[in-house]
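In this supplementary section we document a worked example of the pipeline. Step one takes a protein sequence of length 180 as its only input; no multiple sequence alignment statistics are reported here. Step two produces a three-dimensional model, which step three serialises into structure tokens for compact storage. The input and output of this example are shown verbatim.
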Amino acid sequence: MRLPLFLETDSFRAVHACWDLDNIDYLRQKLVDDRLTPELLRQSVQKGTRFNDAIDQTLKGKEVTMPHGQHFYDKDGHKRTQIRIKWWENPAHMTYRTLSIIPMDELPSEPLSKNDQQQNSYYSTDEPPVFFGHYWLRGEPALYRDNICCLYYSVAKKGKLVAYRFHSEKKLQNEKLAYI
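The serialised model returned by step three reads:
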């Protein structure tokens, strides 16, 4: 409760999992100095509320339900009917497979439903650089786009510890990623 749920400066943004402007604007009105209080923490876990949805998406990311009752099993063997999506991509130009943050061949290669397209805004290319984690990425660290930087590469599971050497540039560069 002493740390903000998100951070915005003149040159960058930082969030645990997803910077959705509608959610951030809503949370700015609800939180105290962008932080939870004990009462707000209790409210945040009430399923089906706008507050719970905004907190969940900010801290866990956006999800869409797979079509036709399809599912997959995650790395821990749990059956999943939803996928976490690349919230910085325009869903109107994506399929379930290409919009998934974690690449999986078993995901449908059909376009997202019109409902999912309309419900999901996205982080545009003209917005400030945003840094986030949460997604347990693997492989060589790389930017998704010149204003999108995920810094979590599964260090807790023998992955890489990643940082970015930021100097207020408007366009991020792969060469400024540092990792061990």
